From TrEMBL:
Keyword Hydrolase among record annotations: yes
UniProt similarity note: Belongs to the glycosyl hydrolase 9 (cellulase E) family.
Keywords associated with the record: Carbohydrate metabolism, Cellulose degradation, Glycosidase, Hydrolase, Polysaccharide degradation, Signal
Domain Glycoside hydrolase family: 30-291
Record-listed E.C. numbers: 3.2.1.4
Organism field: Prunus yedoensis var. nudiflora
Any one Pfam family match given in the protein's UniProt record, by short name: Glyco_hydro_9
Domain of life the protein comes from: Eukaryota
InterPro entries: 6-hairpin_glycosidase_sf, 6hp_glycosidase-like_sf, Glyco_hydro_9
Signal peptide interval: 1-26
One record GO biological process: cellulose catabolic process
Catalyzed reaction equations: Endohydrolysis of (1->4)-beta-D-glucosidic linkages in cellulose, lichenin and cereal beta-D-glucans
UniProt name for this protein: cellulase
GO molecular function list: cellulase activity
């Protein structure tokens, strides 16, 4: 139930896949479904909202403007998780990765929804950049106390619950959330490569730094943060799949053999029967089949 926000990105990916694969006539109207799926993200926005056409959900207003204050940093922005007022970076980053993947694969078929998809991605990546860059050696991974928030039903504009800040570091690692954050930034860097090269380079350089952190200080963020993320978004599958997923996206974004060698060192897994915000093995293998170094991929399985 807590994965609604993350799983919506899968519906967008599948919706665009259908648009690319079949002739859409009459009902169901997949184009309308795509538009509404992307519009959902505007309803989940946290922070200071834009005006005019950039914010079609006019019943929403500014919220979470003091996020990060507890840690003396600016962590405004990003998305709330489903119907909650908590910002869980683990599923948020996965949703961003998947929305970017769908845009990369089928952007030419998205028509007027392409600009809205880019806006949805950028709203997330602007926040993820803050989380990764504001404090050296530390990655912020969430805002809001989920245990308190889930007992209090109120609009984000009216919330008066504590905005606790959570992070991972060298002494409290989180390779899973860091690997997913790196994947999101790397995938988004390709979305913006032609339309905003400067922003794309910032996304990619930050993705490399976050991935290096995930690789160097290995451990599950569930172990570091406990009840702040469990049982809501525990990393049940461990963190190896996020290391694979993050490195795969950086390999695709850079074609750097460094990531190929790291992928090879990880080996393979039999956990490929599902693909979700928690388990990325299947998605990583599909992604690896499409990178330019695909001829070397069989060596990963020895």
């Amino acid at each position: 139930m807590r994965s609604r926000g993350a799983l919506l990105s899968l519906s967008i990916f599948l919706c665009v896949f259908v648009l690319n694969s079949v002739q859409v006539q009459g009902n169901p109207n997949y184009r309308d479904a795509l538009a509404k799926s992307i519009l959902f993200f505007q309803g989940q926005r946290s922070g200071r909202l834009p005006s005019g056409a950039a914010q079609q959900m006019t019943w929403r207003s500014n919220s979470g403007l003091s996020d990060g204050l507890q840690a003396h940093v600016d962590l405004t922005g990003g998305y709330y998780d489903a119907g909650d007022n908590v910002k869980f970076n683990f599923p948020m980053a996965f949703a961003t990765t998947m929305l970017s993947w769908g845009t990369l694969e089928y952007g030419k078929r998205m028509g007027p929804q392409l600009s809205d998809a880019r806006a949805a991605i950028r709203w997330a990546t602007d926040y993820l950049l803050k989380c990764a860059r504001v404090t050296p050696g530390r990655l912020y991974v969430g805002v809001g106390d989920p245990n308190v928030d889930h007992k209090c039903w109120e609009r984000p504009e009216d919330m008066d619950t504590v905005r606790t800040v959570y992070s991972v570091s060298q002494s409290n690692p989180g390779s899973d959330v860091a690997g997913e954050t790196a994947a999101a930034l790397a995938a988004a860097s390709m979305v913006f490569r032609k339309v905003d090269p400067k922003y794309s380079k910032l996304l990619l350089s930050t993705a490399k730094e976050v991935m290096q952190f995930a690789m160097r200080y290995q451990g599950a963020y569930s172990d570091s943060l406990g009840s702040a993320v469990c049982p809501f978004y525990c990393s049940y599958s461990g963190y190896k799949d996020e290391l694979l997923w993050g490195a795969a996206w950086l390999l695709r974004a850079t074609n750097d053999v460094y990531y190929f060698n790291f992928l090879k060192s990880l080996g393979a897994s039999d956990s490929t029967d599902i693909f979700s915000w928690d388990n990325k093995f299947a998605g990583a293998y599909v992604l690896l089949s499409r990178v330019k170094l695909h001829a070397y991929i069989p060596f990963l399985f020895h």
